Amino acid sequence: MTGKFDLEERTAKFGESIIEFAKKIPRSVVTLPLISQLVKSGTSIGANYCEADDAESKKDFRHKIGICKKESRECRFFLRMIAKATPELSDKAFVLMREAGELNLIFGAIRRKTV
Fold it and tell me: What is the tally of structural domains in the chain?
């Protein structure tokens, strides 16, 4: 199994975890926009990684990895907001925040190596 495949699988599983988590969040005027943003950012990490894997140039690859980094950071932010809005889900939110943080660090390292 290659490292590339591992990261593709890891980001896909993370997106799936975000979807499952989002289904558990109570709907309210506060949480609805947060859920939408969380699902968009959390699932786009893997999609953008797949695009980076098919990049047409080194510059294109670096750009798409940068998007993965941004989306993982954004996802972490919305998980924090959801933890505040729904304290009963904060433990699960913090587990997902940790994974989003790790993904952010991974993509940052990949981006730095492709200078």
Answer: 1
